[in-house]
Amino acid sequence: MPLSLAQWSLTVTLFVGALSPPLIGRLGAGTRRRTVTIICLALVSIGTLMAALPLGFEALVAGRALQGLGFGITPLAFAAARDQLPEAQARRALATISLANVMSAGLGFPIAAVIADLLGVKGAFWIAFGFTLVSVAVALKVIPPGAADGDGPVDWIGALLLGAATFGVLLAISRAEVWGYGSTALRAVLGLSAVLLVATVCWLLRRTNPLVDLRVAMRPGVLGAHVAGLLGGVGMYLMMATIMVLVQAGPEADGLGRSVTWAGFMLVPYAVASVVGNRIALVLGPVIGPDLLLPLGCLAFGASNLVLALWHDQLWQIALAMLIGGIGSGTTFNSIPWLVVRVVPAAETGSALALNVVVRMLGFAMGSALSVAVLAHFAEDGHPNDTGYSGAAWLGLLICVVAAAVCAWQARTARVALDLPTVR
Hints:
Helices cover 78% and strands 0% of the residues. It has 424 residues and is mainly alpha-helical. It folds into two domains: 3-154 and 211-417, Up-down Bundle (Growth Hormone, Chain: A), CATH 1.20.1250.20; 155-210. Helix 10 runs antiparallel to helix 14 (315-332). The longest helix has 56 residues, at 87-142. It is globular.
């Protein structure tokens, strides 16, 4: 099977994960929250079962697509925590949910790699299926319905337009290397995506009950969260994608020549450090103001890229870069939900945070694609080299510094607009 075809078993989950959150966030608003959450978890469970069974490649891709619906559940969890808990406890709950996402991403890959080594790929899917069944049982027990004031019509046309525009951008990013960065196909898809994006914005701004309220998304205190999600996501994933290649590349490609399992273990420091970043955010937030956590987190992402640019000859140096990046992730991404819910009506929590998930997924995809493009640009005889690894990291540093500057400006704007005290 061609590699370009096999890659769809990976990218289809990313596509669905980026397309589904706004629709799930709107469908799960109000009294529908419990039902939609359980249905989504059940579909994720069915998708994992399809991937585990020997049903062929088409069933594997379909199953992986259903697994992507799991990304849309997170905004519903945020909304439930906001509704059910007092404000002081809600902030910690939102940070904990974000932390759980980071931890699962950071630890999931190395754990899956070890299980795959012992039981095979199908064995890893069977173990994952068991976890999905547990999640369905927990949801049945603990997820409450939302308030009735969140009920309302679903903007299906907005969902179609936003989904098509997002799909086009992700398709162009993921296929750019295969099609060629100057190819007609790439330009056509990007051009069509731009047209769809303009149409989406015009439609959403005209709707009384849009799928995503763009006016809310542009409010001071919310826009900075989306900027951090996009640019911070680009800088972080550019570093992580480069590290995955560097660790596995052989001596002929100036790499460390380790297995995919070792590459997975490099995510462990990132996951563990995100816990530290989470604690830092909870302590510093009330002192310096939560908006300033975003530029600090982006600077931590930049510092991790700086370490990678200067030192990447040993595994401990890679682990150090991931450790610093994890602190940035815990500080930044775990703060975003609380920044958003401060200025978003309770009924719009799921929808507003779903947009941030989409923006963040686009940032991740762009970072991964940029890593591939930079490594390919500096490659010699088809192999990446030391110049490419350093170049990707320097680019990641530049993007993170820009993100930090924009987020710092947004923090100042939010303080003025929301009439927050200035921290001295």
